[in-house]
Amino acid sequence: MITWVARRWPPAFSIAAFHRPRDVTLLFVGNPQCAVPVEDFEFDWRAMGAEIESHPLFRTAPTSRFSEPWTSTSSSAVL
């Protein structure tokens, strides 16, 4: 089940991942991308990425991208 979250571009959706609904942005830039905003990386983001990549919504595994709100010390993780 996928739910459209808001009218914006790129479109944001909510998918069930890692035991609860997650807001994500879906992009296709040569290959599918699933961007997930997170507050920090104090969780098993590798396991969540694997769950997203095997989600039944996707015909082919997307690249899972996690990003924190931007600060001067921000980082991001790509699985």
Q: How are the strands of the biggest sheet laid out side by side?
A: 1-2-3-4-5-6
The number of domains = 1
Could you estimate the helical fraction of the residues in percent? 10-25%
Task: State the shape.
Answer: globular
Mean pLDDT: 76
How many helices? The count is: 1
Could you give the order of the helices and strands?
EEEEHEE
**Approximate strand percentage:** 35-45%
Low-confidence spans: 1-6
**Got a strand count?**
6
User: What class do helices, strands and sheet pairing give?
Assistant: mainly beta
- How much is the radius of gyration in Å? 12 Å
Main sheet properties: 6 strands, mixed
Compute the separation of the termini in Å.
23 Å
Characteristics:
79 residues, mainly beta, six-stranded mixed beta sheet, 1 helix, globular, disordered N terminus
Description:
With 79 residues, the chain is mainly β. It has one domain (3-78). The protein contains 1 helix and 6 strands; from the N terminus they run ββββαββ. Strands 1-2-3-4-5-6 form a 6-stranded mixed sheet, covered by helices on one side. A hairpin with a 5-residue loop joins strand 1 (3-6) and strand 2.
